[in-house]
Design brief:
The chain is an alpha+beta fold and 153 residues long. The chain is built from 5 helices and 5 strands, in the order βαααββαββα. The strands form 2 sheets. It has a 3-stranded antiparallel sheet.
Length: 153
């Protein structure tokens, strides 16, 4: 059974904020709880932003966007992801593919149309990013909230 691919865009947070998130056990309980809440709230905001920005054709991509939290005593991680196999093509676009020609046969498999073809031409597709802009929009607020929670104590 083939495993579905997961598409995740990683956040480029500053080094100081990254170190704060990786060493939560170095802070007191109130500070670490507040940082965990900030991560959950920001992940929910990125999730909502991705749902708002995703291009909808059949709705399958929008339905496949999920979020989860990985909480351990030493760190916390929020993840917004999709299991849709074509998500990376929509997010980053696709370059033009040279004409496909059959190698061992006289014609290409018909696929869903029922007709056999001697060549296939796949056009380029423009990128329609939805995950990265959602993260880029939330990142400054997230970093400011984490810095405020750490300096408050």
């Amino acid at each position: 059974m083939a495993r579905k691919a997961t598409f995740i865009v990683k956040a480029d947070v500053s080094r100081a904020v990254y170190n704060c998130l990786r060493k939560l056990d170095a802070y007191d309980q109130r500070t670490s709880d507040s940082i965990r809440k900030i991560v959950k709230d920001s992940t929910a905001n990125v999730f909502a932003g991705a749902l708002r920005r995703v291009p909808v054709r059949s709705g399958a991509l929008k339905k496949s966007i999920r979020m989860r939290f990985e909480d351990t005593p030493t760190n916390t991680v929020g993840v917004v992801y999709t299991n849709e196999p074509t998500a990376h093509l929509i997010e980053r676009g696709a370059g033009p593919v040279p004409a496909l020609m059959p190698v061992k046969k006289k014609a290409l498999h018909p696929g869903g149309s029922g007709y056999f073809f001697t060549r296939a031409s796949i056009p380029a597709r423009k990128a329609k990013p939805f995950l990265k802009p959602a993260m880029d929009d939330e990142r400054p607020r997230f970093e400011a909230k984490v810095r405020e929670a750490v300096t408050k104590t």
